Amino acid sequence: MAAAVLFGTVALSPFAAGADPTPFRSVQTTAEEPVDLELVIAVDVSLSMDVDEQALQREGYVKAFLDPMVVNAIEQGIHGKIAVAYVEWAGSISQYVVIDWVAVDGKDSAAELSALLAEAPISRLRRTSISGALTYSGQLFDDNGYRGMRRVIDVSGDGPNNQGGRVDTARDAIIAGGVTINGLPFVPDPTKPLSLFDLPDLDIYYEDCVIGGAGSFSLPVYSAREFAEAIRNKLVLEIAGTNAPEETGPEETGPKPVPASAAATRIPCDVGERQWQMFMDGDTP
């Protein structure tokens, strides 16, 4: 299959030195291009993730689009093509497009996307607003020049929502529009001291409060060394539209995806806001 013509541009963070804060959108034709999947990758760049973790996270996406498993999943689709946008986010007003919508239909165009990601800077911003990231990402599907058989937001993060609107309210609004939300939560290492803003049950929080929609799943990551494998596996599942098998726990080798919980929430969806209020009140451990 011939490679798609890839005119995606990198919109640098307004927080990077010398960067233009206005993202440049690729020129699209008036007709919508059919694709198997419209995918927004929404990546947490809040200060709770250290520089090394952020670098490993970005490297995971750079490597994933070079992986034969990902490329094969793309080529096996009905159209053999997906559209991807890559967003970084933190607080309620801190979201921006790193790579605007680009079409990927095989090895060459996937490699171009990987190269764009490798060249783009990574910002470090304050607070955590998953609700803001979901709302912002959901708007990116409007008039993006593509018509996907499925629309998915893939949101990653290492903590609960603590700024902006309620995350479950934002989730419900997004999935009501036919968009699926999948999660990649970075669960805190239980062997290390936890801060006030850490949530040991972040995997459960993502299942109950963040993900939703047809075929949604969460793929917990329990250590930084799992980033690359988890990101690759997640992309393969999303591109192929495969239902995720049940997870058996972090004691198993490698990360395992888990399905969205159909039961009542097991953890308050405003737990992050409560943590922040404790901090503001000076009630810290």
TrEMBL record:
The keyword Signal applies. Coiled coil: none annotated. Residues 1-19 form the signal peptide. InterPro entries: DUF1194 (IPR010607), vWFA_dom_sf (IPR036465). The keyword Signal applies. Residues 242-263 are annotated as: Disordered. Keywords: Signal. This is DUF1194 domain-containing protein.
